[in-house]
Design a protein that fits this description.
The protein is mainly β and about 525 residues long. Among the domains are: about 260-370, no CATH class; about 415-515, Immunoglobulin-like (Sandwich). The protein has 6 helices and 34 strands. The strands form 5 sheets. It has a 15-stranded mixed beta sheet that branches. Strands 1, 3, 7, 8, 9, 10, 11, 16, 21, 24 and 25 form an 11-stranded antiparallel beta sheet that branches. The relative contact order is 0.11.
């Protein structure tokens, strides 16, 4: 694997009864519920296909005063949980008000044994901190999206675990997580000079599950200037929460960089970056690295995240990628010391393709941010040859939200990365060099004695030079530490790859890191 910088007939009543009876006998609670309602994925695909051959029409925006709400004002609009759809069931639905970032309403329908039913807007389902604002809300405003609840943390709880709201964004958590990173239906030209576009989910169909169901199905219709699409999500809340995603995309025009299964997160600073002046918290981030499992080679590759001074894009070449995701590996409270944000409880997200996706790249986009309020990290898979207009792209994948072990990686893992000046005490004595320290743990490393002959394999790209490296067991941390002194070529980034082995046996994933010139670790001129 290499990295480089770049760039859906209703059934009659009798038929519905027959289908429902057959489903009851078969015990099929998810797929049969949709069939009983006379609606399925094929219907959404047909709508998307028809949209794609017509000129794009943007959704009608909500009134300007709602778009201009301050964050605190929008937070004062709250859905009453007692008004949740499907009260008394395991799965319940809370509705999201438009406003602020949510600039248009979406259509939400319920699919059940009796058919398809639109969810009407009811202002009284919300409480308003500002009575004057409530008076201004139109009676037909609509909803921006929805939140699903389920007893994740106890039989009588109604925990929010999945939220669809805003463009094609959705967020999920596993048991014991708090919300953090987001997923999206699709990304279009993210990071390119031409500018990114944000297609939106404009219609949803929620298939009502049985009251005691452990899974549910929902469908979504996506529309944007560049493409239309149909999505099916089969949702399994738990530890982790898993979504089985099927998508059919219909490009309206050529898309230079089509992002499949995109993930969006925040990285402000961490153990591998300087702490901003005045910050008391050790680290601030929703995710600390990108993990990729290359299907053709079997290699697992870990790239710690950075908050760059200017936009950076990295393309990791893959052939039938077996998985990728943004992880929050450091889950210790002491690494963040933030009792409000609880960064150590933010979820990791892992994408596992269904079938072979072929040649392409996992793309990592890092954007500069001056605080923790901006999502500045995006990762997605891009096909080597984007589909031409008129040719549908069919994909399926499993998306899991949970702890850092969701990839089920068997290799030893890079648990922490530290970076410092290689010309100061504790770093080294070479002007212009960097000291990089990588701690590895887990996998085959867990069974090794402290005196095992573990060695590092380190290489530099872009003309860089590895001056020295060694491996030692750090007993207090129960980790194996690789220490590297390396120097970049003049005016070039420092790009390194490394892993640990015991003889000819590879023990760990490949750690990959890149530092552009002009960073805050080694001053200009060394």
């Amino acid at each position: 694997m290499s990295a480089r910088l770049e760039r859906r007939v209703r059934a009659g009543a009798g038929a519905r009864r027959a289908i429902a009876a057959a489903c009851a006998v078969a015990g099929l609670t998810v797929t049969c519920a949709a069939a009983a309602g006379g609606f399925g994925f094929g219907d959404v695909i047909a709508r998307a296909r028809a949209l794609a051959v017509r000129p794009y029409q943007a959704p009608k925006p909500i009134p300007a005063f709602l778009r201009k709400l301050r964050f605190e004002e929008y937070q004062g609009i709250r859905f009453d949980p007692d008004k949740s759809l499907w009260n008394g069931s395991r799965f319940q639905v809370m509705l999201v008000s438009p406003g602020l970032y949510y600039t248009h309403a979406v259509k939400i329908r319920i699919v059940d044994a009796s058919g398809i039913h639109a969810v009407p807007y009811r202002k009284d389902d919300f409480t308003f901190a500002d009575p004057a604002l409530k008076k201004r809300i139109p009676p037909n405003l609509g909803y921006a999206g929805f939140k699903l609840t389920y007893p994740l943390n106890g039989p009588h709880a109604h925990n929010q675990f999945l939220v669809f709201a805003g463009a094609s964004y959705f967020r999920g958590v596993g048991r014991n997580n708090v919300f953090g990173l987001s997923a999206r239906g699709v990304a279009v030209d993210t990071g390119l000079p031409s500018g990114e576009r944000f297609p939106s989910f404009t219609e949803f169909w929620l298939v009502r599950p049985k009251p005691d169901a452990h899974a549910m199905t929902l469908y979504a219709l996506l529309d944007g200037k560049d493409l239309a699409g149909a999505y099916r999500f089969v949702v399994y809340p738990g530890d982790p929460t898993t979504l089985q995603v099927s998508a059919v995309l219909f490009p309206r025009k050529s898309i230079p960089l089509l992002g499949v299964a995109p993930l969006t997160s925040m990285f402000f600073y961490g153990s591998n970056t300087p702490r901003p002046s005045g910050e008391w918290r050790p680290q601030v981030h929703d995710s600390d690295g990108l993990l990729i499992h290359n299907g053709s080679t079997g290699e697992w590759l870990w790239r710690p995240l950075r908050n760059p001074k200017e936009l950076q894009m990295y393309y990791f070449e893959t052939d039938d990628v077996a998985g990728f995701g943004l992880l929050q590996r450091d889950t210790r409270f002491s690494s963040y010391e933030d009792a409000g944000a609880l960064y150590g409880e933010r979820p990791s997200a892992w994408v596992r393709p269904g079938g072979k996706w072929g040649k392409g790249h996992v793309v990592l986009v890092e954007l500069p941010t001056g605080d923790e309020t901006n999502d500045n990290i995006v990762a997605f898979w891009a096909p080597q040859s984007p589909p031409p207009p008129g040719r549908p792209l069919r994909l399926s994948y499993t998306l899991s939200f949970g702890g850092p072990d969701v990839p089920a990686e068997p290799m030893g893992r890079a648990a922490a990365t530290f970076v410092g000046n290689g010309a100061i005490v504790g770093g080294g004595s070479v002007k212009g060099a960097y000291r990089l320290v990588v701690d590895f743990a887990g996998g085959p490393l867990a069974g090794l004695p402290p005196d095992a002959p573990v060695t590092g394999v380190v290489s530099a790209q872009d003309g860089g030079e590895v001056l020295e490296h060694y491996v030692e067991y750090v007993k207090p941390a129960h980790r194996w530490r690789l220490s590297v002194l390396a120097k970049p070529a003049p005016g070039r980034p420092l790009a390194l790859r490394a892993y640990l082995r015991d003889g000819k046996r590879t023990l760990t994933e490949t750690w990959s890191y890149e530092l552009p010139p002009g960073n805050d670790i080694v001053p200009e001129g060394g």
